[in-house]
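User: Quick sanity check before I run a bigger batch. Here is a single chain. Can you write out its predicted 3D structure?
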Amino acid sequence: MTARFELNMDKPTFFRWVQQQPGRYDWVDGKAVMQQGSSKQHNRVAAKFQFQLTSQLNPDDWLVFGTDFAVDLGEQVRYPDVMVLRLTDDGNPMATDAPVALVEVLSPSSVTTDMNIKPPRYMALPTLEAYIVASQDEPRCWVWQRDATKPDRQFPAEPTDVAGADARIELTALGVSIALADIYRGMFKS
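Assistant: Done. Predicted structure follows.
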């Protein structure tokens, strides 16, 4: 088992420090926490989500980022695999507290964090409309999406399980439809 690298620092120090570091770090509980590297499959799924979102959203209204731009959650700073935000977001040049959609790709080391720890924190952001967790091992995603038909527009307690090459993720707030076939094409033998 590899020891996890953690370094105590406050958030402003973290933002200055992380710009000088190779690798990927989150800021959690007052510590810079090194994130493990990701596999080719992980990067492929993230890149395909980024491409699908970028190609379907109007660039005059939306920005789509990969892992180099952070979400500022107040007590934490996280670097999701893919993030969508409005072009008008003019917050911190290193992070935003106003993402509209977030995608995380599961890794063996991130299952608990991505499926249990991040959802309530991400979904507490008033601007967030959708949080997607994608498998890198099969065409399957778990989608939390605000329910526009309910007065409180709350997220569901449990995600919608979207599985199979013929399945689609409909992001209603963004007007985007993503076919899992487009995300996972060529990744698995039939």
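The CA atoms of residues 29 and 76 lie 7 Å apart.

User: Great, the batch can go ahead then.
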